[in-house]
Design a protein that fits this description.
Elements: E1 2-7, E2 28-32, E3 43-48, E4 63-68, E5 73-79, H1 83-96, E6 107-113, E7 116-126
Antiparallel strand pairs: 1-3, 1-4, 2-3, 2-6, 5-7, 6-7
Amino acid sequence: MMRFVDVVGIGQCHGQNNQALNSKECKIYQYSQGFEQREVLFSVIMITVPDNFQLSEEDEANCLLTEWNGGPYAVAPATLESEGQTWVFLEKWRKKNKKELLKNQWVEECEHIGWELTGNIKCWYSVK
């Protein structure tokens, strides 16, 4: 199980007493509406946080602390340019290997150096 800050609004989330998150210890994940046609598009950014991390009062309007139980995933490396092809590859792999598609959210882990995104990602596809 991982503990996340879901960044709902724009801005940075800091812990109580202005405790900033350490970029070397935190991972960034995101998910969106996926391939479904929707009237309203959305994207959710999640940042892993230490177990003892608590939001400051001012950041509670923009950030939510949540726990993600996850589950079994197939993971494949990608870049922003190859992301769509990677999801297609994972689906073909799933069908070929007769894996069951689970209801857990598909996510992308975004590689970063000091909070600057590199363009490299890992696609996490929920299968069993």
